[in-house]
Design a protein that fits this description.
Elements (H helix, E strand, L loop, with lengths): L2 E2 L4 E2 L18 H23 L33 H30 L10 H52 L2 H11 L5 H20 L4 H16 L3
Antiparallel strand pairs: 1-2
Helix pairs in contact: 2-3, 3-6, 4-5, 5-6
């Protein structure tokens, strides 16, 4: 089942993005653990190499005092595409419905076996074990379904608040800035901007006004707002 290594949650098949953190899901919990183990091994190997003065790596490269070796900078943390709370609510609702369906099927199967309506090709301990597993899986599915439904209800409230906030920010920006004013400011700073450069500078300027004017801490949310505003301001071009 799809698994979020950050939130330690499993999802039903078909869901690609975690409904809590918005991060991408991996194939399964086992895959996430294997990736984490591999990353830890690589970190330990790198630390051991740095601590070993006789490793020999890098000793053949000569450099002058004017050209010291560049220090490697840590990899920048990737910015994931923003998933609005409305989409997360839909995903969580779908997950809850799927678990309710699975739990219902398992419960019906367990009831048919326990009542003797459906005869299993096994007897004794194996039969009781199989029926017990069906009951446990059915209960577990219903527990996850109820938990998902509760979280979906919370996300619904958050999604409505976010929708109102987004619309308010868009209205504020369009009231205070126009496409003509943005272009005049950019061309005043650099009259030789080409079409592609101008498009990039427009996006950066919209982003600056949003972050400074509205104090938006979530970079991915700010990028999503920038794309929406860019379309509204320049969709006639």
């Amino acid at each position: 089942m799809p698994y979020c290594p950050k939130c330690d949650m499993e999802f039903v098949e078909g869901i690609k993005v975690c409904s809590d953190c918005g991060g991408p899901l991996v194939e399964s919990k086992e895959v996430a653990e294997a990736m984490k183990k591999k990353e830890q091994e690589e970190q330990l190997a790198a630390m051991a190499q740095e601590m070993d003065p006789f490793s020999g790596e890098g000793t053949d490269t000569e450099f002058s005092g004017d050209n010291p070796p560049e220090k490697s900078s840590p990899a920048a943390e990737p910015v994931h595409a923003y998933v609005d709370k409305g989409q997360r609510y839909d995903d969580m609702s779908s997950s809850a419905s799927a678990f309710f369906l699975v739990g219902g099927v398992l419960a019906i199967g367990a009831a048919l076996c326990l009542l003797g309506i459906f005869h299993l090709p096994m007897a004794g301990f194996q039969k009781y074990m199989f029926e017990g597993v069906l009951v446990v899986l059915a209960i577990g599915s219903f527990v996850v379904a109820v938990s998902s439904r509760k979280r979906a209800a919370e996300l619904k409230v958050e999604a409505d608040d976010e929708k109102r906030q987004t619309q308010e920010i868009i209205n504020w920006f369009l009231k205070n800035y126009s496409a003509k004013e943005l272009d005049e400011q950019l061309l005043m700073e650099d009259p030789d901007l080409s079409g592609e450069e101008l498009s990039l500078k427009r996006f950066e300027l919209i982003q600056d006004f949003l972050i400074t004017g509205r104090d938006i801490p979530d970079q991915s949310y700010a990028d999503s707002l920038c794309e929406t505003l860019y379309t509204k301001l320049y969709d006639q071009e």
